[in-house]
Write a structure and sequence with these properties.
mainly alpha; 2 domains; 73% helix; flat
């Protein structure tokens, strides 16, 4: 490899590291704001979005569970109907 190629690879890795740090910082701020609005804003005039944090956790887990079930069904249908080597019914 030439010196220019090595320098270009180093610049690319440095840029991606900076981008990763910025991405992590952005997501951290978003999560903190979301937690503040949903649970911890009890002293403000607006009041928190969720009165009981336990109910919020239950609803969150229910949502993750149903999303997992949807994923399982979708991947099953993809595996069953995806690898067919038949032409599409709409094109015949």
């Amino acid at each position: 490899m030439t010196a220019k190629a090595v320098a270009r690879l180093k610049n690319t890795s440095q840029r991606s590291t900076v981008q990763c740090v910025a991405l992590i910082a952005g997501w951290s701020v978003a999560v903190i704001l979301l937690l503040w609005v949903t649970v911890f804003a009890s002293g403000t005039p607006a009041q928190p979005l969720v009165k009981e944090p336990g109910d919020f956790v239950k609803a969150l887990l229910n949502g993750v569970t149903i999303a997992g079930l949807y994923f399982m069904f979708a991947s099953r249908f993809t595996l069953i109907f995806g690898p067919r080597r038949h032409p599409s019914q709409g094109r015949s």
